[in-house]
Design a protein that fits this description.
Order of helices and strands: EHEHHEHEH
Strand order of the largest sheet: 1-2
Largest sheet: 2 strands, parallel
Number of strands: 4
Radius of gyration: 17 Å
Distance between the termini: 27 Å
Amino acid sequence: MRAIGRVEMLPQDLQEEIRRTEEATHNYSRMFLNVALAYGGQRELLDAARSLAEQVKAGRIRANDVDEGLIARHLYPQNGSPVPKVDLIIRTGGDTRTSNFLPWQANGNECAAYFCAPYWPEFRKIDFLRAIRTAQNRASGQQA
């Protein structure tokens, strides 16, 4: 489990719980659950661009060194461990759009999207299983 976004904006007790959860799951490598908190895709790209511009200005990198891999390493979380390509986006709350959510990681990838009415606190196991089925059908070329 990994929290992405501007986690430093969250209350201290929630930041500590996030840190404990990430630490408890840091050895898992087959699947990743990214939970977006205080997150916006445009802000993520803006923060990465600013970070890279500061490094160019400081002479640590050259503008020509900026490529897809370098950009990915400057996205959230900014600990040198980029979020892998996204296979499934689950959008709760009835919205049927993915705008502003993981634009770099989901674009150009065969990412499935699952939209459901319940908001996150009411998200149930059956909703999760339906989301998994959506991703499986997408991977096998079937219509959901």
